[in-house]
Amino acid sequence: MNTFDRHILRRLFSGFLFFVGTLIVFFIVLHYVEFIDDFMDRGATMREVFLVYYPSYIPEIVKLTSPLALFLSCVYLTGKLAQELQLIALQASGVSLYRLLRPYLVIGVAVTGFMFWFNGWVVPRTNATVLAFEQQYLKDGPGPADVNDIHRQHRPGQIVSVGFYDRTAQTAIRVSLQAFDEADRLVSRIDASRMEWVDSLQVWRLRHATLRRFEADGRVLQRTINQLDTALTVYPRDFARTERDVESMTIPEARGYVDALRRSGANQIGRTLVGYYVKFAYPFANLILVLIALPLASVRRRGGQAAQLALGLLTAFAYLALQKLTEPFGYSGELPPAATAWIPHAVFLGVALILLLRARK
Questions:
Q1: Is 219 part of any domain?
Q2: Which long-range contacts (C-beta less than 8 Å, at least 24 apart) are formed by 156-160?
């Protein structure tokens, strides 16, 4: 790597940090203006807002804005080189656009790798604080996906039904555990007035439980137990989910959570699955936007740097808009969740390749 490559890397990285910092400030100001009424109406103190909530929110902002910040840094630097005729001079001396792409690829791959780790392991920890704060103080904060008439599969042929679940107390009301044989015949059933999670034992404790066993000859054997501990493969978080639970989980935790939801037969998990696959897909936006930025900004345009940045912003927002437009289809199941997460990146990777092929070499 020569002196010119190191110069490009240094300027790209410094520009990236500048735009990330600018976007953080812009986002916090915009967010505060929008939600100040909720904060005041629900009793949040300024200390909690600015010393707890927003510092915890900064990693999420970095995650969301890093592709845009890196893209703007690339567009600004490349546009400046193009406007000052430095690109033409380099190409005249035999430096092709593909050779010039090398330091851009280095910074793109490095930021993508870092953001994969950052998004998958760091952001979820701070998001736990953010989600708890929003549930308490924002009118439109994340609410439970289902707390009434819940049905989960304990294991094949065994169903747990709950009339109502109190997420805070980790207590279920009107509980029924049903077991079926291979012919779908009900063979046993346990009904309890309530079921409480005992964290120290990692078991569910049934209160005032009635056990019934249905024999093949039609007899029903029944007995009542005041208290019964049982180990289920359904845990408290499986009963009362919120639409954004997966945001506060690392990638390994989210994988286990998704497996548990599928095993328990939970419904309406499209949003959760999309959020899980986005953890893998979103960091690649950093690299893809770098591949778009170089050929897009390497052409001199009337209007100079302002025109370059305006075109860059339009492209970046089109990318982000496509992601937001496809997500509802994944939430509803009209698109596979994995495809929902990857389609925008595949589309703009195609755009990047077309721009690179058509750009002046």
A1: yes
A2: 157/181, 157/182, 159/265, 160/232, 160/234, 160/264
Whether residues 130 and 165 fall in one domain: no
pLDDT of residue 309: 74
Q: Give the predicted TM-score (pTM) of the model.
A: 0.80
What does the DSSP assignment read for 316-349?
HHHHHHHHHHHHHHHHHTSS-HHHHHHHHHHHHH
Q: How confident is the model at residue 108 (pLDDT cuts 50, 70, 90)?
A: very high
Digit-coded pLDDT (tens) for 23-42? 999 999 999 999 999 998 88
Same domain, 25 and 167: no
pLDDT at 138: 85
Alpha helices (H) along the chain: 3-41, 46-48, 54-83, 86-92, 97-117, 123-137, 236-239, 251-264, 270-281, 284-297, 304-332, 337-358
Asked whether residue 248 is assigned to any structural domain, the reply reads no
Range of the domain at 184: 148-238
